[in-house]
Structures are given as structure tokens and as C-alpha cells.
Amino acid sequence: MNIFLIVVIIVLIIYILYILKNISLINIRINEMLDLAIKGNFNERVFDESKLSKIESKFYRYLLDYQLKEKNLIDQKKNIEILISDISHQSKTPISNIMLYSQLLKENQFIEYIDEIIFQADKLSFLIENLIKTSRLETGIIKLNPSLNSINDLIKNIISSSLKKAEEKNIYIEFPQDEEYFAFFDFKWTEEAIYNIVDNGIKYGLEYENIHIKIVEYTIFLRIDIINKGIGINEEEINKIFQRFYRGENARHKEGVGIGLYLSREIIERQGGYIQVKSFSKQIRFSVFLPKDKN
Q1: Residue 86: what pLDDT?
Q2: What whole-number distance in Å separates Cα of residue 241 and Cα of residue 269?
Q3: Which of the four pLDDT bands, split at 50, 70 and 90, describes residue 177?
């Protein structure tokens, strides 16, 4: 009986020591996690989650989520700072021009300066409006709501909105509607994204050269091709044209602020799609890929 009691006590002592050791290890690992989190160095590669206890795993997940939220806040702050800097930089020229022409108008009473003031004011209004849209997209204020929509209806709306500008350059927008196509996208915002591409095709396209819009169907995506002949894009510039305020070498003599394509890419990518660009001599093809099913 005494031997049995001694054995039980020894087993209990061993078990208690084992538990205490595990608690000590958990405390050490949690302290390590906290130290790394405080220093901003906490990441998934530091700890093997399969070897952690339940409480450690929950704490590990919490720290990862917290760090991700903190990173998102830092990124948003950086985006806002960049945006404010962009607004300040890009608005200086039209504001300076408005002030200059207003002064000339005041001094010389020349009526022709009024048209230039109106033009610069419209440019500034367009710039600010698009910067606000970009800011709202980047900070998540605007939520895109993709649903099953007709690609044909989308293209018809875009052609209708582009008609006046196209006619001024004797450009016809061709869109053969041999069948109906559907994809998942936010109708309003996707219309704006593709309109920006078509508008660029008109602005930088050659007079009397038509714009061709075609649809190609794949298993997962629908591809919308916008093809036109124009000033062309240098091969080394293709990856840069979607940067905010980037103006290609061949486009600098044309009016524009360089934000339309940036906005287009943001809208399409936030819906699980993407945009490709191919330049063949003077022919340019923008391909917009939209998912056929809900992501």
C-alpha cells in the first residue's frame, strides 16, 4: 500500500512538473510573440502554428490580425499623404493659369481669355473629381458591388457617352453584337473604367481611324478588347501607363492629367479582373478581363 502511494505521488509530481514546464514554455513563447509584435517584426514564418497550444494559437492569430489591421492603417495613411501631395502638385498649374488669365482679362479686357479660364477651370474640376473618386476607392469608402450584368448593355452605354467626342474626330466605334455576353461586375464603376479607356482611344487616336470593341469568352473570364490606331505606346512605358499622373512621351502634347487609366485599373482589379495592354506599331489594344462568376 505504501509503495503504491509513493508511486502515485511520484507520478503526480512528474505530471505537475510536466504541466509547469508546458506553462513555462507557453509563457516564454507568448512573451516572444509580444516582443516581436511590439518591435513590428511579428510574422507567420517565426512560429510554427502546428506546434503551438490552443491558447498560443488563438493569441498568435490575434497578433497576426492586429498587425494586418495596423499595416492597413499605415498604408491608408500613406495613400492619403500621397494623395494630398498629388492634389497640391497637380492643381498648381490650372490654378496658376486661371489667376494669370483673370489678371490679363482684368488689365486688358480681352474677351478671348474667358474661354481659356473656362477650360482651365474645367480641367481643375475634372482633376479634383477624379482624385476624390480615387481616394474613396483606395480608402474603402466606395464599395464595389459586382453582380451578373450584360456586357452588351455596358458597351452600348459607353459608346453612347463617347459618341460626341468620337464624331468630332470622325471616329466610328465598332461593336458587333452577334451574341449576348454576361459577367460579374459593378455596372456603374465598370462603365467608368472602360469609358476611360475608350476616351483615351479617341483622345490619342488618329482622325478617321475607327475604334474596334470585341469580346472574347474564356472559361473563367470575359475579355473586352478596345483596339485603335493612334500615337502608340513605347514598349518600356506599357507598365508605367497605369501609374497615377504618368504621361507617356508620345502623349505629352495632348491635354490630360494622367489619372484615367490608374482609376480604370483600380476599379477592374478590385472586382477580381485585370487589364492587359499590347502595342503593335501604331495600333494599341487594351484588354479588360472580367470574371464570369462571383469570386
Answers
A1: 65
A2: 15
A3: confident
pTM comes to 0.61
Backbone angles phi, psi at 174, to 5 degrees: -95, 130
Q: Regarding beta strands 147-150 and 211-217, do their DSSP bridges make them parallel or antiparallel, or are they unpaired?
A: unpaired
Dihedral, 194, 197, 198, 201 alpha carbons, nearest 10: -170
Q: Coil, strand, or helix at residue 102?
A: helix
Distance of alpha carbon 163 from alpha carbon 155, whole angstroms: 12
Residues 223-262 as b or e (16 or more Cβ within 10 Å = b): bbebbbbbbbbeeebeeebbebeebbeebeeeebbbbbbb
Whether residue 64 is predicted with pLDDT greater than 50 in this model: the reply is yes
Sign, CA torsion 90/96/102/104: negative
CATH 1.10.287.130 domain extents, the chain: 69-139
For residues 102 and 96, give the distance between their C-alpha atoms in angstroms, rounded to a whole number.
10
Spell 111-146 as b/e; 16+ CB within 10 A means b: eebeebbeebeebbeebeebbebbbebbeeebebeb
CATH number of 147-291: 3.30.565.10
Q: What is the CATH number of domain 69-139?
A: 1.10.287.130
Location of each CATH 3.30.565.10 domain in the chain: 147-291
